[in-house]
Write a structure and sequence with these properties.
Layout: E1 2-5, E2 13-18, E3 23-28, E4 38-42, E5 52-57, E6 66-67, E7 75-80, E8 84-90, E9 101-108, E10 123-126, H1 140-143, E11 147-153, E12 157-165, E13 178-186, E14 191-198, E15 202-205, E16 208-211, E17 213-214, E18 216-221, E19 231-234, E20 238-242, H2 245-259, H3 267-275, H4 285-291, H5 301-319, E21 327-329, E22 342-345, E23 348-354, E24 361-370, E25 374-378, E26 383-387, E27 397-398, E28 402-408, H6 414-421
Antiparallel strand pairs: 1-4, 2-3, 2-5, 3-4, 6-7, 7-8, 8-9, 10-18, 11-12, 12-13, 13-14, 14-28, 15-16, 17-27, 18-26, 19-23, 20-21, 20-22, 22-25, 23-24, 24-28, 25-26
């Protein structure tokens, strides 16, 4: 709960008392306060209505968000929020999964299971319109680092702001773009909040005009043969198409490119060629797109443009063939049973991925719908993805949208959780 009183109140912490007599620690938010107005954050459990009365300055409570020992070399902070155990990293710009910024470890304290145990994946990266074939597959989480500003830090709330610049790709209109991401964690709550800001842009992706829309991607890993989540559902039913023609066409182009004679190949190209010999399907997915990445420099920009233009053209045709019909599903979708273990659902603002056996569930609410999603649940590698993009890496989430993400044993109640995420407390007696 965020609330404001029309007074200048000093001190970092205040004590409030509810109308039931319970004491509540309130954290003063310096970034939201102004002369004559003081804003506080408090975590309160109540049914329908609660009244808070500020009593006076408070001492540091015994409970609250705690910082711990980090695991990754580029970790900015390891937090125990009283509900989540997570590690936020700044990235190393090394061009691999382990170099990503974002949340590289994440789980609930009670469950004690890290949903990102290897540190090679991350929650919170954003990709499109930069990680697109049109732009030469520049991957912001892997190809740049971020600075992190501490906006608020106290026992009730931690607010961090990441800032970075996306490396230039092939499209002139996407050069020099800066971004900022606000992350908010609160004590003992089963969800966190984030908002993405990117310099204004307009470009064409997948044959469509894209203005200030991005792909946000959350990754999870269960290990080979294991899925942390084995179903996907959208609020009110899932409308989707199965399979990923773009990925299939990219695999074909990798095979064609590495098989062709190349007398003056670059060392980076030869490195990829060695890694991609043998069973193409068993190679790590990163190797496919990295071959055609302008940042990597394995191929000249003109060749990247020409080859990815052919991939796009073939994928466009295949994506919309009559036999590739839309499925209308009232029940959760078993994504790993779909072709390419991938589905592309349509617009939604409330979605979930869960495991039918354990009950563990991630729930996402966005303050405006994403126009499409890409959901992957790949049992062979154990990799699971939630992304706000349509086919051919087309970004679909408006910049500036608030995302609330909850995690817990919500398999049977996730729609109720989504409704709660979408309905913040109504604060009266002050602005909040």
């Amino acid at each position: 709960m965020i609330f404001t009183v029309e007074e200048d109140l000093g001190g970092d912490l205040w004590l409030a008392r509810t109308d039931a007599g319970d004491e509540v620690t309130c954290q003063r938010l310096a970034s939201r306060s102004a002369p004559g107005r003081t804003t506080f954050a408090a975590v309160v459990t109540f049914d329908k209505r609660v009244e808070l009365t500020l009593v006076g300055p408070a001492a540091q409570p015994r409970d609250g968000i705690r910082e711990g020992r980090a695991r990754e070399a580029d970790a900015f902070v390891r937090l125990d929020t009283g509900y989540f155990d997570l590690e936020m990293c700044t990235g190393t710009a090394g061009g691999t999964g382990s170099s990503k910024w974002g949340l590289r470890h994440f789980g609930s304290v009670a469950e004690g299971v890290d949903l990102l145990p290897s540190g090679d994946n991350a929650i919170g990266g954003f990709y499109g319109p930069f990680f697109t074939p049109e732009n030469g597959l520049v991957n912001p989480p892997e190809h740049t680092t971020v600075d992190v500003e501490v906006v608020e830090r106290g026992p009730v709330m931690h607010h961090y702001r990441m800032r970075g610049t996306v490396p230039d790709g092939l499209l002139d209109e996407l050069r020099g773009k800066r971004f900022a991401i606000d992350w908010i964690f609160t004590y003992g709550t089963p969800y966190f909040t984030r908002v993405y800001h990117v310099d204004d842009f307009q470009t064409v992706i997948n044959g469509r005009s894209i203005t200030n829309k991005i792909t946000v991607g959350d990754e999870f890993e269960g290990g080979k043969g294991e899925l942390l989540f084995d179903r996907f559902a959208a609020y009110g039913g899932t409308r989707y198409r199965a399979g990923d023609p773009y990925a299939e066409e990219l695999v074909k182009m990798v095979a064609e490119t590495t098989a062709a004679p190349r007398p003056a190949a670059s060392p980076k190209f030869e490195e990829f060629r060695r890694l991609l010999t043998g069973d193409m399907r068993s190679a790590h997915w990163d190797l496919y797109w990295r071959l055609f990445c302008a940042w990597e420099g394995a191929l000249e920009d003109d060749e990247i443009r020409e080859r990815l233009a052919r991939v796009r053209a073939a994928a466009h045709v295949r994506a919309d063939l009559p036999e590739r019909a839309w499925t209308l599903a009232d029940e959760p979708v078993e994504v790993s049973a779909a072709p390419d273990e991938t589905i592309f659902p349509g617009p939604a603002s409330k979605t979930a991925e869960f495991h039918t056996g354990t009950g563990r569930t991630m729930v996402w609410w966005t303050s405006a719908p994403s126009g499409a999603f890409q959901i992957v649940q790949r049992r062979q590698s154990g990799w699971v993805n939630w992304g706000t993009n349509g086919e051919n890496e087309c970004p679909e989430l408006p910049v500036g949208v608030e995302i609330k993400t909850a995690y817990g044993m919500f398999r049977d109640t996730w729609t109720d959780v989504a409704d709660q995420l979408a309905t913040p407390p109504l604060v009266t007696g002050g602005a909040g």
